[in-house]
Structures are given as structure tokens and as C-alpha cells.
Amino acid sequence: MIKNIKTLSSFLCVLIFTSSYVFAEPKQAAIASAHPLATQAGIDILRQGGNAFDAAAAITASLAVVEPYSSGLGGGAFWLVHRSSDKKQTMIDGREKAPMRSTHDMYLDKAGNVVKGLSLNGPMAAGIPGVPAGIEHLVKNYGRLSLKQVLAPAIKQAQEGFAVTERYQKLMGYRKEVIKQYPDAAQIFLNKYDVPAIGALIVQKDLANTLITLANNGRKGFYQGPVAKQLVSSVRENGGIWEPGDLEKYQIIEREPIVVNYNGIKVTSASPPSSGGIVMGQALNILEQFNLEKLDSITRKHIVIEAMRRSYRDRAAYLGDPDFIDIPVDRLLDKNYAGGLALTINSERATPSSELSNIATIDQIGTDTTHFSVVDPEGNRVSATLSINLPFGSGFVAKGTGVLLNNEMDDFSVKPLTANAYGLVGDHANAIAPGKRPLSSMTPTFLETDDRIAVLGTPGGSRIISMVLLGVLDFAEGNAPKSWVSLPRYHHQYLPDQVQYEQGGLSDLEQTALKDKGHVLKEKNRRYGNMQAIMIWKKKDLFFAASDPRGEGSAEVFYYP
Ligand code: GLY
Q1: I want to staple 319 with a disulfide (CB 3.0 to 4.6 A). Which of 273, 275, 410, 425 is the partner?
Q2: Which atom of ligand 1 lies nearest, measured to the CA of 441?
Q3: For the chain, how far is it from start to end, CA to CA, in angstroms?
Q4: At a CB cut-off of 8 Å and minimum separation 6, what does 334 contact?
């Protein structure tokens, strides 16, 4: 829903200074998140005098409580940050890390085959979480309020409970059988081992206590002391390989974001260990070679699909954790390199992916992850994508902590050239190593022109990058956030060699024409993505916010004294 509530009453805010009345210009802010309670947590923090970074920390913690299927204290995130006072832009990397006892072949049997489910279910699937450290980092380095203030809304939500929705039920449907195996998770998220009814309250007392410990002691409250001890012993009792040092050594890293220019739009996005910024930037560089707006819809979609195919191919070949491998970032984002790739696109025929390389793969499942965007009255902004990977992560809750652990280890290439849960393939660049961060597709993004600023992102596994790409192209056409978040979606990720599209993503005519060009089409049986976006129209100082109609989120533009 789009809202721009510049109402008359907003302008009538009166501030009292000593004995005189002063009409103060009300402050304008915007938040879009995947859950109304998380949006409300951010609003409350801004109203208490916090800035966008405090609000981002509060929204992160709230989503960890009310969207347990998407993100959490047991997961990871990338927070893309813009600080208005000095124009600093940075990416706070809170991605999970492989435990130190991880090995290259830890998910393979003696014959070298992938052990089904081992990188997806239970504590063996979990990387060392980064979200608690990220929350502290945001507040300590960029915020204005205390960690206690910022975590208060999430603590209350965990103590009082949140109501089960249709989305909760649907995502639990995918993961119920795994969660049933772990009593601590089942007790919190199921009702007598079944999916709870709509409206049932999910109360998380243990998680509230873990959040209180984090609020009181900062990151030490999670990565050291009783919570850390409990996390490690519970993981190990259930077959996992975490060690106390894994948690203690976890570090947030600030990384320079990826910046590309697309037809005069400054695009700032996630850098490795996310593939998002590079893959999207490369696709945009390829697309810049074409006059997309002049093309008919069929040719345009064909060209966009071919650009996706080529940039996702390079993802598989080159991308991984930059602390472990050398990534040829400059070459991958070189306009001449993109020009060369553009020349290989035949406007009449699909290029089989096998002509680019020859890797086999499987289909992808599920939806996961979450995103929020926030802008405060000073122009500080955060675009954050957070994840525990598949819905409800690994399905495992560490006893007594309420912390649902991620299954982000599956984002590694667990076996070279073998597809992960999203059908993505990788090679040595994204192989498992102790302490390494798995390659992500999360694409928190800022866009800027002379007259507009945008903050956007979405969950959706490997399709995150193509969804944000389509959003950028729509922004380039001059459309508003409501349009970006609602756009019909289509996707190509090099392998499997097929154009995936959601219901309504391609018209009948487009489907026929794309098949005639040699594309293999695969309609997904549902709509996908959950984009949360904000736009500022600088000249008029107007804010717009929109939440994807596919989800249950809320987008608010609001004023306060
Ligand atoms: N777990 C989804 C991603 O990071 O790409």
C-alpha cells in the first residue's frame, strides 16, 4: 500500500519553547518493512529521538521476533547505510561465517555425494550468526539511542506474542516436518506439532530473555557468557560442530558498497560476500548498451533475460567471500566487458546457457529472507536485507535461548558445480572453508539521480537480484515505488537454463514469442518476492513508501514534531 500522508494536521504541530509558541516544520520519515509490527517498532524509535540507524536496529530486532520464518538473531544480514552528515556510504556485513571445524566436503558422503538435507536441516546447517553483532554495531557506531531503548519494542513483542498470519501458515507448511524434529522449535512455533491457527499468539519468552541479555551487555551478551554457552552446547548435543571460539571470534565488517552508473542513475548496492551488487551492476552495464525504452515488450524482456543469464554466469564462476578469494570486481563491472557481452546477445534467439558453460542443476524452492527500508528526516537511510535462508532457517532452536538458527551453510557451493536449494551453482570461489562467509544474493540498494533517491530491496533467494534489477529499470522509467513493488516478475539465473516467471509475469503473447526465440519457460506456481521500497522526490521533498502486495508488510510515510 502506498501512503503519502502529508495531511493538514501534520503541519499544525506546535512546539512550546519557554513562553512563546513556535510553529515547527514537522519532520518527515518513511519506513517500509515486511511486518506492520516491525514498521511500528521503527516509528516508535524515531519518535523517541532515534535516527534511521537506531530505527534500523529496532526493525531488525523486531523482524527477528515477528517474522521468524525470514530472519532472526540466529541469522545474518547486510545493512547498506547512508549517513547524511558526511555522506558516508558503507555496507555493514553481518553475514554468517562457517564454523572453524567446517571442511570443504562436510556435506558429502564417503562416495562424494551430497548428503540430502545436511546443509539445510538442523544445527549442521547453521553458520555463526551475525545479526546480534550487527544490531550493536549499528547502534554504537551510527545511532543516537541506547541499545536498551532500541531493543525495547522487540523485547515486548517477544514477551507478549504476535499473531499467526496466512504467510506464517504457508511458510510453516514448507518446514513443519523439519521443525517437528526439534522440540524446542516445535514448542514455540507449532501447536501440538501442527501449524497453529490464524490469530494464535506466538510468545517467545526465551528469545525475550536473550534480547534482554543483548540489551544489557551488548554483543558480549550473545557471543560470550551464558547465552553463547547454551548455543554451543545445544548445537553440539544435536550433532553440530560449533565451538565457543566461533561465537567469540565473530566480527562485523564494514565494506565499500558496489557503485555503478546506469544511464545517469547512481546505483549503490551490496558488495561481496553478496553477489547482488556485482551481478545487478553487470546486468545494468549490459542493458545500457540497448535503448530499452524504445524496444517492444517482447524484445525488451528477451534482452533483459539475456543480460541476467550472462551476469549470473559470472556469479557462478567468480564470486565468493572476498576475504578468501580474489574477485575481479573491476573487470566484472567494466563497461567495455559489458559491451563485449552485449555483443554476444542475438535479439532474435536465446543463447543456450550451455554455450556459455556446461553445468547441470536442479530446480529451486521456497521463499525466505526479509527486507526493510528506512529514511529519517535528516536524510540518513538504511536498506537492509536479512536472512536465515529457507523459511524458519534450519528449523533448530538452541535450548533455552529461543534463537532459531539459520541454514545459510547451504549458500556455499557444497559440492563444486552442484546446485543449492535455489538451483544456484558455484565452484571453488564459493567452496566451504572455516571462517568463510557463504556467497549471498541479498541486494539492498540505493538509487540516486538529480531529483530522486530510492531505497529498495527484497527477499527471494537467487531471484532477489533479478527482482531488484527490474525495480531499478522501473525507477529508470520514472515510475514510483508502488509500481516497482507490484511489477510482474521474471527471472533467469544462467542455470537451470529456463526463464522462470510468476503468475502473470509474462503475457500470453510474450510467452509465445519468447518460446519462438528458443527460451524454455517455467511458470512458478505462485507469485514471489516481498519488496519494501521508499522514494524521495527531492525537489518537492515528498516521500513515498510501498510494500509489496504479495506480502503482509506495511509502508508508512509519517510526520512528527
Ligand atoms: N540466503 C539467501 C541469500 O543470502 O542469498
Answers
A1: 275
A2: 5
A3: 24
A4: 285
User: Is 227 among the domain residues?
Assistant: yes
Joined grid coordinates for residue 90: 558503507
CA distance 63 to 70: 8
Grouping H, G, I as helix, E, B as strand and the rest as coil, residue 335 is: helix
Specify the DSSP element, H or E, that contains 542.
strand 542-547
Cα(464) to ligand 1 centroid in Å equals: 9
Report yes or no on 226 lying in a domain: yes
Tell me if 80 is assigned to some domain: yes
Does the pLDDT at position 560 exceed 80?
yes
The minimum-distance atom of ligand 1 relative to the CA of 408 is 1
- Pairing between β-strand 499-501 and β-strand 521-523 as defined by DSSP bridges: parallel
Q: Is 165 a catalytic residue?
A: no
Cα→Cα distances 412→407, 434, 466, Å: 10, 12, 20
Chain segment 70-106, per-residue pLDDT in tens? 999 999 999 999 999 999 999 999 999 999 999 999 9
Nearest residue (CA) to ligand 1, atom 4:
440
Closest of 258, 253, 251 to residue 89, by C-alpha? 258
Is the minimum distance from the CB of 367 to ligand 1 under 6 angstroms?
no
C-alpha–C-alpha distance, residues 91 and 70, integer Å: 20
Per-residue pLDDT for 416 more than 80?
A: no
* pLDDT tens string 108-128: 999 999 999 999 999 999 999
Question: In this predicted structure, what is the pLDDT of residue 414?
Answer: 87
Best of 319, 440, 467 to mutate for ligand 1, by most ligand atoms within 8 A of CB? 440
For ligand 1, whether the C-beta of 71 sits within 6 Å is no
Cis omega (within 30 of 0) for bond into 273: yes
Q: Considering only CA atoms, which of 462, 458, 447 is closest in space to residue 496?
A: 462
Please check the confidence at residue 358 and state whether its pLDDT lies above 50: no
Percent of the chain whose predicted confidence (pLDDT) is above 70: 93
Range of the domain at 246: 37-253+383-412
CA distance 444 to 76: 13
* Nearest of 163, 49, 19 to residue 561 by alpha carbon: 49
What's the total number of domains in the chain? 1
- Residue 369, ligand 1, Cβ within 6 A: yes
Q: Is the confidence at residue 12, as pLDDT, over 50? A: no
Please give the model's pTM, rounded to 2 decimal places.
0.94
Torsion over CA: 388, 392, 397, 403 (sign)? positive
Decide whether any atom of ligand 1 lies within 6 Å of the 387 Cβ.
yes
Please report the pLDDT score of residue 354 as a whole number.
87
Q: In the predicted model, is pLDDT for residue 165 greater than 70?
A: yes
